[in-house]
Design goal:
This protein is mainly α. The chain has 6 helices and no strands. It has a single domain, classed as Arc Repressor Mutant, subunit A, CATH 1.10.10.
Length: 103
Amino acid sequence: MGRHQGRGLVEHGAAIEHDVGLAEPADGREAHEPQTYDWLHLEVERLSSLERQILNLRYGSVDGVTLKTASECIGIPRDRVKRIERRALNKLRQRVGPMLLPA
């Protein structure tokens, strides 16, 4: 997956904010500002290519795709897609949580 393909994940930030549990950035910027998500792009890039591919399929567009469709596109069972998706979202929560709520 290319460097900019993960960007689809945050173009529709509301879905990611909901699932990842994101709040407004700690520096006071508005969450809807495109440059606000630069820090999130860096964290998405740290995920494995499979994790990024799954999140991009599931959240990278306005409609996203179902677990079933994602599993068919990637060629792995639906329950495995669900586990990988959950793991990737948890990684993002752990990594961005401290950035959003500094001590």
